[in-house]
Amino acid sequence: MAVLPGASGWPWWRRWRWQGQGAPPVRTGFGILLLFLLLGSGPGLGPAKADQTDEYLKREHSLSKPYQGVGTSSSSLWTLMGNAMVMTQYIRLTPDMQSKQGALWNRVPCYLRDWELQVHFKIHGQGKKNLNGDGFAIWYTKDRMQPGPVFGSKDNFVGLGVFVDTYPNEEKQQERVFPYVSAMVSNGSLSYDHERDGRPTELGGCTAMVRNLNHDTFLVIRYVKRRLTIMLDIDGKHEWKDCIDVPGVRLPRGYFFGTSSVTGDLSDNHDIISLKLFELTVERTPEEEKLHRDVFLPSVDNMKLPEVTLPMEPLSGLALFLIVFFSLVAAVFALVIGIIVYNKWQDQSRKRFY
Predict the structure, then answer these.
(1) ω into residue 134 within 30 of 0, thus cis?
(2) What is the pTM of this model?
(3) Which stretches are transmembrane (predicted)?
(4) Residues 146, 171 contacting (CB under 8 angstroms)
(5) Whole-angstrom Cα distance, residue 8 to residue 3?
(6) Residue 46 to residues 14, 54, 288: CA-CA distances in angstroms?
(7) How many CB atoms within 10 Å of residue 271?
């Protein structure tokens, strides 16, 4: 993993995490000396390769304490739904109680081309292993604030869903250990299969022991050059571990970020501590610019999604009136033409007899 030069030797991803949370610990004397060396070495760090990235925190798509941007007013950037509540140290999507459902949605559509979403979360409760549930989802979808059965949000969604599933519904499966993180891309034609824990439609996944931990837990969703990468920091070691890496993921711009959770007979506290979205500025070759044009429906290369049949919109009263009116005019016109032709044919027939 590439490490930026600096007194602490912190990798780029840790540097992002510390933005807005203080600076990482450094040795003052050595740090100042190295700073002078860097300043005197030239114009600074340049792009090392074609996919070198610069990152910028996008506050309109980010959320952190004291959660001032959450509310129902027109100036609010985030909206709560269901049983979600704002607390002093976190936003609780669902409490450790049965049959609860909550969500948190960004009100501003995201038009970034390349981005990274960092999620600081905590899942905890009284239930023992496999006696807790159900988990939470992170969304980048066309529709927002739509409750439903998929971790508290609608099924047949259009966009990306990342699921932190804490309860195994498929009793016969022995291949994976829960909690489990998976991802799914849908154009609206796919349904999430609860009975099989989403296995028929998942892009990939990994086991993630995220419950009842005494240290911070993080998840990162990175979308760069149509490559979807999901990484976790859940061991308290301040390092990312790969979970999902899928090329050829095509996501439209203008969708909404959100997160939701649901509990059933089993429950947990599902808390969101912060959501931080970074715009990534990535250099592209002319060939990549042609390949990475905007798309209008989500898709994944080498994965055929069923085509979506869009329902016909009901006609308005005016449109229906115009259709009936012009149909009658056309019918009368055709009748008149038919009468004229018939009369001429009769006249010609009489002349033959005389």
Answers:
(1) yes
(2) 0.74
(3) 318-342
(4) no
(5) 10
(6) 20, 11, 21
(7) 20
Distance CA 3, CA 33 (A): 19
- Lowest-pLDDT range, 90-104, 114-128, 210-224, 286-300? 286-300
Only one residue has tokens 């500025």, namely: 281
Q: What integer pLDDT is reported at residue 84 of this predicted model? A: 97
Model confidence at 155, pLDDT cuts 50, 70, 90, reads very high
Give residue for tokens 């009489």: 350
Q: What is the pLDDT of residues 107-135, one digit of tens each?
A: 999 999 999 999 999 999 998 877 898 99
Residue 351 confidence class, pLDDT cut points 50, 70, 90: low
Interacting residues of 301 by C-beta distance below 8 A, sequence separation 6+: 247, 248, 249, 250
Look at residues 280, 213, 277 and name the one whose alpha carbon lies nearest to residue 64. Answer: 277
